[in-house]
Amino acid sequence: MDKKKLLIIGGSVGGAALIALVVVSLIIANSPSALIVRGAANTIADIKRLEVYDVADDVINGGSVSVSANLDKYAKDDLSVQAKINTNAKDLKGSFEISFAEDGDEVLKANITGNQDKVTFECDKFFDGTYGVNFKNLVKNLPESIFDPDEETDYSLYDEQFEYFMNLKDTIKNDKNLERDITSMTAKYRKLAIEKLIKYAECSKSSETIKAGSDKISCSVVKVTVDEEALGLILQDLIDYAGNDEELENLVFRIASNAAIGREAEDIVDDFYDTLDYFEDELDYIEDLDFELNISVYITKSGRRIARIDAEAEVDGEGYDFSLILGRNVTTSKDMSLSIKNKETGEGYDITYTVKANNSKAYEAEFQVEESYIEYDYIDYGRDDDDDYVEYLDTRTSTLKVEWDKSGGDLKIRYKDKWDDYVVKGSLLQKGDRYIFVLTNVREDGEAVALIKSLELTVIVDRHDPSPNPAGRFTEVTTMNVRDFKHLAEDIKDGVEDFTREYFR
Question: Regarding predicted confidence, which is higher, 380 or 492?
């Protein structure tokens, strides 16, 4: 065979393989599980781009929140207070500072500052100098210290607390990237759960145009039916996977190490796996249920986002309806809703979020919750054995309405339900990375709440405000003797009492 024919054949085979690969890729990408996984991932990514989420994430990982108020009505003199908290979860840094001023002159200032290596605290009003703890030296300093349980001092820790602090250096070290790893693990098991759902359930795929508010949205619809047998298989696979997942075990241990004061982290991990075993033992009970779940997931054809989820469940003859409408994209949707109802009684909740304006000039939105519940009217016939009641479905509605003039700063928040009517007024301005809110008025059922205006409450949220570093030089608390530590504790206690007595009524 000549080279020309070989090239033609080779090219044809290669082209066919390439076409087959593209076709297979398209089939996989548009499979029910892939559509739902991608739709969920894209929707979650959109939620993270919402301004309120984005601001909160920035503040938690390198910003601050400060609060100031005028305490004239509560203090003996012209006293004001300001408190500020800096947070940086990503770099394991943070601080808290509080200060009081009389007629503009500072009369008290205290702060606590920490990072992954140490924490320090200062308050010149109560004690001289700076005190702190170096986490790296805990293993060396705690044994035979006044905090050692074996020393039996007034300040000795419980054995479990002592062990926690002895391991704190390694705990903090392992905390690096903990938030990121939890997010990654959550995404991993969300994807796995969807894949198992599609594997064992009855699935179908179709197309449909739905309406969300005034929007008409073209969607791919994945319909899934799960019975008790499929549910048992799904849960069994998830339990089996989790039971053999070393990454999950390590993550649970890291989380437990943070919450294990009074308990060993290993015991909390054991509890987690005991719970998995318990759920596995209960799978037989689940398979004995008369259970059916029908889920319809609507994924936008443009953008691949979850626009709507409808579900209908039957459990031993009792039925429930569920509907979540997100619209084309949660960052721009003007109408979103959630409905959960008992099919037999009509009890449940209808929750709606409606955006009337959201642009550079104004934000106006309404959040409404309507609860349906069974009410009873009792009828007294004058004889105990003849008392009766009438049962009927009633509703109560709660509404939260927000009106914000972004350019002028005027902010009005109104909450109203069957019994209460509150109106909060203030000013909210965005200046660069900072959001500045000043509370001016609160009204309850039309009457102004006393002292609010004079409080001059101001809240400043700063998206980018680096946390200060702990002091470089300080007195190490873990090496103090009983006498010195007792004097420090008494100085703080006496200082708080003296300050309160001097400045407050």
Answer: 492
pTM value surpassing 0.85: no
CB atoms within 10 A of CB 32: 22
Pairing state between β 434-444 and 421-431: antiparallel
Dihedral sign for Cα 139, 141, 147, 152, please: positive
The β-bridge relationship of strands 130-134 and 475-476 is parallel
How many C-alpha atoms does 484 have within 13 Å on its Cβ side?
11
Compute the distance between CA of residue 266 and CA of residue 249 in angstroms, rounded to an integer. Answer: 10
Which of 165-174, 180-189, 334-343, 448-457 ranks highest by mean pLDDT? 334-343
* C-alpha to C-alpha distance for 119 and 135, rounded to whole angstroms: 8
Q: How far apart are CA 91 and CA 149, in angstroms?
A: 32
Q: What tokens were used for 426? A: 């203030």
Q: Are 238 and 194 in contact (CB under 8 A)?
A: no
d(CA 309, CA 221): 10
Output phi, psi for 206, to 5 deg: -150, -175
Sign of torsion over alpha carbons 477, 479, 485, 487: negative
8 Å CB contact between 365 and 400: no
The encoded tokens of residue 51 equal 């301004």
d(CA 404, CA 430): 12
What percent helix, strand, coil does the chain show, rounded to 5?
35, 40, 25
pLDDT tier, 11 (very low <50, low <70, confident <90, very high otherwise): very low
Q: ∠ CA(457), CA(460), CA(466), 5° rounding? A: 145
8 Å CB contact between 107 and 166 = no
Please measure the distance between the N-terminal and C-terminal CA atoms of the chain and give it in whole angstroms. Answer: 106
Report the helix count and the strand count for the chain, using DSSP H and E. 13, 21
Cross-strand bridge partners of residue 133: 119
265-276 pLDDT per residue, tens: 788 889 999 999
- The answer to whether 457 and 438 are in contact (CB under 8 A) is yes
Type of residue numbered 65 = V
CA dist 236 → 3, 66, 71, 203, 308 (Å): 57, 48, 59, 20, 28
Q: What is the pLDDT of residues 162-190, one digit of tens each?
A: 888 888 777 666 666 777 888 899 889 98
